[in-house]
Design brief:
Elements (H helix, E strand, L loop, with lengths): L4 E8 L3 H10 L8 E7 L2 E13 L4 E7 L5 H12 L2 E8 L3 H10 L8 E9 L2 E11 L9 E7 L2 H4 L11 E10 L3 H12 L2 E5 L2 E5 L4 E5 L1 H7 L10 E9 L2 H10 L4 E2 L5 E4 L8 E6 L10
Parallel strand pairs: 1-4, 5-8, 9-12, 13-16
Antiparallel strand pairs: 1-5, 2-3, 2-6, 3-4, 6-7, 7-8, 9-13, 10-11, 11-12, 14-15, 15-16
Length: about 300
């Protein structure tokens, strides 16, 4: 494999503060809001979006919100959020973004030029600028979500230890479940995009990355896994899986703080999407590949 990892997933949230409060109620530590900027012809210009993060030991969750500027990214965020509440972004991390772009060109994805991004970050000792590059493709190539590849140039500014301790014990982003019309076709395409390996049968297919994984099911397959939930649309990123350091302690924390969960499979907890910004949240031990059953 090429070294691709499941870097982060992004919730599109029109109201930044209320979204952060909802995530904090689940026991996550949330970073302050920061405004994102693009480097265009040597000048930093507003991207039209800002974010808060839930930083895990492996991967992170991003809460993206508009900042008021009329930009393509801001319009995409608002249009996507109007379609359904939840996760609309999946980002794969790679060290060699030039090699990633060549792979996408050879695979017929017609990638855009690499975009230089930055955002102001507060550290324990003062202000700094987080820098990273993002590689995207036309929306019709990956219609399920905003799907991109990222190269972090200042990872130490993202993975700051002071933000990585979560009362609910979360430590890792394990898996992301897509509901699509044709799971096998989607898995083959995402494996080519991210440089992973696909496998599966019937209504359930999987892409294994060097770190993390993706699961693809059809609508019936989703109901088989989550019988108490329905999908708001197809395609949709319907669920994410997180690893926790101690599932029993996580359950105790949820119960103490009034977070309702179910346990449809051994050693796994599922939080209702109404409490998780519209996305099914499944948690299990951090050394699990994913909490939901495989075909």
């Amino acid at each position: 494999m090429s070294g691709s990892v499941l870097d982060h997933v992004g919730f599109f949230a029109p109201q930044a503060d209320s979204a952060a409060e909802a995530v904090a109620r689940l026991g996550f530590t949330v970073t302050p809001f920061t405004v994102q900027r693009n480097l265009v012809e040597g000048q930093l210009v507003p991207a039209g979006t800002g974010n808060r993060l839930v930083v895990l030991e492996s991967g992170y969750l991003e809460i993206l919100s508009p900042t008021g500027e009329d930009t393509p990214l801001a319009r995409q965020l608002q249009e996507s959020a109007a379609r359904y509440d939840g996760v609309h972004l999946v980002t794969f991390g790679e060290h060699d973004i030039g090699a990633a772009r060549r792979r996408l060109e050879e695979g017929g994805f017609d990638p855009d030029l690499v975009v230089d991004l930055s955002r102001a970050v507060e550290t324990a000792t003062g202000s700094a600028t987080a820098r990273f590059q993002v590689l995207r493709v036309p929306a019709d190539r990956m219609a399920e979500a905003r799907v991109q590849i990222c190269r972090h140039h200042t990872p130490e500014l993202v993975w700051q230890p002071r933000w990585m301790g979560h009362p609910n014990g979360a430590v890792a982003l394990l898996d992301t479940m897509f509901v699509v019309e044709d799971p096998q076709h989607a898995a083959v395409r995402y494996a080519a995009f991210a440089g992973g390996e696909h496998s599966g049968s019937g209504s359930t297919w999987r892409v294994q990355l060097d770190v993390g994984a993706l699961t693809f099911v059809d609508a019936d397959g989703f109901v088989d896994v989550f019988p108490d939930n329905t999908v708001p649309a197809v395609p949709v990123i319907a669920a994410i899986a997180l690893g926790v350091s101690d599932p029993a302690a996580t359950l105790a924390w949820f119960e103490e703080h009034g977070v309702s969960t179910t346990s449809p499979w051994p050693d796994a907890l599922v939080v209702d999407p109404r409490d998780a910004l519209g996305c099914v949240l499944a948690v299990s031990a951090s050394d699990a590949s994913s909490p939901w059953p495989r075909s």
